[in-house]
Amino acid sequence: GVGKTTLAEAVFNKIHRHFEGSYFALNVREEFEQRGGLNSLRQKLHSAVLREKNVDIGTSIGGRRLGRRKLLIVFDDVTDFQQIEYLIGSLDCLGSQSRIIITTRDKQVLNNCGVDCIYEVKELIHKDALELFYRYGFKQNHPTADYIKLSKRVLLYAGGLP
């Protein structure tokens, strides 16, 4: 798509060291649909942020312990607020210094979560898309003349998506 996951990963990698615990929950939608639920993902998340193996997530103790820590959690490709509630409980249970980043295709999911700030990723303008394509497709800023026309056709087809 437009690069929501890539941007979230870049932010996560840059700031996760400033938190007591961090976790990047990749492809929440896929975990939910293909694996029939989120139990495994919830266990991994709680174990990672609390830095313990086999955390008892069935009790409210885990939720209270999450609230005492400064955490960074990324939920990637969320389709329903209930997925987040299942994974961590109420967003209110987290401490005030914790941060959650949510990527989604549906802005309404973010509205349902009551998020403080929404950043909408825009498609690249043609000039920037062309520069990015040259740099990663040809490992140079300007390909040979033979590839310029082809590159422009590829970008037209991609419609501004990286």
UniProtKB/TrEMBL annotation:
Which molecular function GO terms apply here?
ADP binding
The record's section on Gene3D superfamilies has: P-loop containing nucleotide triphosphate hydrolases
Look up and give the organism this protein is from: Dimocarpus longan
Record-linked InterPro entries: Disease_R_plants, NB-ARC, P-loop_NTPase
- The NB-ARC domain sits at 1-141
Protein name as it appears in the record: NBS-LRR disease resistance protein NBS1
Q: Which GO terms describe its biological process?
A: defense response
